[in-house]
Amino acid sequence: MATPAEDPARSIPILPSPDVEATRDFYRDELGFGVVEPEMDDYLIVRRGDIEIHFWKSDDRKLPEVSSCYIRGGEVPALYAEFSARRVRQLSPFTVRPWNMKEFHIRDPHGNLLKFGCAPEEV
Fold first, then answer.
1. What residues contact residue 122 under an 8 Å CB cut-off, 6+ apart?
2. CA 42 to chain centre
3. Residue range 13-33: average pLDDT?
4. N or C: which end of the chain has fewer CB atoms below 10 A?
5. pTM of the model
6. Could you say which DSSP state residue 91 is in?
7. Is 70 exceeded by the pLDDT of residue 1?
8. Could you report the per-residue pLDDT of 67-94, keeping only the tens digit for each?
9. CB 25 within 8 A of CB 35
10. Domain VOC: where (predicted)?
11. pLDDT for 7
12. 5 vs 33, higher pLDDT
């Protein structure tokens, strides 16, 4: 059995998706996430290193437009470089914000906002 130090508590966003298959394709093919098995028609789990995001099938196409998650850490600059090289659509500039975090964001095909950030000294 794992100890708490070996299995720390973490937060995992669960975002809405009107088309789970299209969501899977975007995260896998454009952002380099792996798909966690088993695949289901109404639920999706993608993972990339320690980043894990879940998606649930929603018939309300407006929900993703008001949903988001924040991904933070020292790996963020490398992710930005990779996403730039992949020419990920809707990739924002990577800049220091007034709250002293260097950030960029991406909107997935349905509108979910992924914000990525790190302290400027981590760059």
1. 73, 74, 76, 77, 102
2. 18
3. 97
4. N
5. 0.91
6. P
7. no
8. 999 999 999 999 999 999 999 999 999 9
9. no
10. 8-119
11. 83
12. 33
Q: Could you give the dihedral angle defined by the CA atoms of residues 34, 38, 42 and 44, in that order, rounded to the nearest 10 degrees?
A: -20
Contacts of 49 (CB under 8 A, 6+ apart): 75
Distance (Å, whole) CA 80 – CA 40: 30
Query: What are the structure tokens assigned to 56, written together?
Result: 């649930």
Amino acid at 17: S
What is the C-alpha to C-alpha distance for residues 30 and 24, in angstroms, rounded to an integer? 10
In total, how many domains does the chain have?
1
Task: Judge whether 18 lies within some domain.
Answer: yes
| Residue 5 belongs to a domain | no
The CA–CA distances, whole Å, from 11 to 47, 70, 91, 97 equal 13, 10, 24, 24
pLDDT at 5: 75
What's the burial of 108, exposed, middle or buried (CB within 10 Å: 0-12/13-18/19+)? buried
Bond prior to 38 in cis (omega within 30° of 0) = yes
